[in-house]
Amino acid sequence: MSEAQFDDPVKHIDTSIRDAKSTAAQAAKDTIPVFSEAARATADAWRAAGRKASAMMSELGDAVPEKREEVARHVQSRPLTAVLIAAGAGLLAGLLLARR
After folding, report:
1. Which of the residues 35, 41, 73, 79 has an alpha carbon 20 to 30 A from that of 16?
2. In whole angstroms, what is the distance from residue 96 CA to residue 63 CA?
3. Domains in the chain: boundaries
């Protein structure tokens, strides 16, 4: 085979490789903004969820003193009932832990 017979296929392969490289580079450039927008949207969603969780915890923290006072009033008004409930809860917890 002569050198000319090999030149044409080699040039064709070289051109195909350059075209593929160019196509891949363009695809990467097109994909970067898509990933960037997805990352931005995800960050926004996490921030919103964090704000919501923070607000819920703040409300819960505000409610704790009120609930503590309410429980204290109930215990003071019915001490025997409170003791029996505590004993029952302790017995149940002990039975559950003893099974392990």
Report:
1. 35
2. 30
3. 3-99
